[in-house]
């Protein structure tokens, strides 16, 4: 995470979102202290991400982009 943020002026924390489509992406976000975002068409299934739940879910990149533009 430190390498990805190097030179950005940001450090790991809730203001940094890590988006992915798999459990390992959400686990990495949790471990880094960042906000985990699930980006895939299917909603999380019951118990699917119990260990590392997403803070948000978006079915497509367009939905994520629209959300960010409206922040």
Description of the structure:
This protein is of the alpha/beta class and 71 residues long. It has three helices and three strands; from the N terminus they run αβαββα. It has one domain. Strands 1-2-3 form a three-stranded parallel beta sheet. The longest helix has 10 residues, at 23-32. The model has no long low-confidence stretch (mean pLDDT 95).
Key terms:
three-stranded parallel sheet, alpha/beta
Strand and helix map with partners:
Elements: H1 2-5, E1 17-20, H2 23-32, E2 35-39, E3 56-58, H3 61-69
Q: What is the gist of this entry?
A:
By secondary structure, this protein is α/β, with parallel strands linked by helices.
Order of helices and strands: HEHEEH
Please summarize the sheet with the most strands: 3 strands, parallel
Q: In percent terms, what proportion of residues is strand?
A: 15-25%
Task: State Rg.
Answer: 12 Å
Indicate the low-confidence ranges by residue numbers.
none
Mean pLDDT: 95
The structural class is: alpha/beta
From the N-terminal CA to the C-terminal CA, the straight-line distance is 24 Å
Overall number of domains: 1
- Estimate the global geometry from the Cα principal axes: globular
Percent of residues in helices comes to 25-40%
Number of helices: 3
The order of strands across the largest sheet is 1-2-3
How many β-strands, per DSSP? 3
């Amino acid at each position: 995470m430190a390498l990805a943020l190097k030179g950005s002026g940001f450090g790991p924390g809730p203001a940094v979102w890590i988006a992915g489509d798999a459990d390992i992406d959400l686990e990495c976000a949790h471990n880094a202290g960042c906000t985990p975002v699930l980006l895939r068409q299917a909603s999380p299934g019951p118990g699917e991400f119990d260990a590392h739940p997403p803070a948000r879910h978006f079915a497509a990149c367009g939905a994520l982009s629209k959300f960010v533009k409206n922040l």
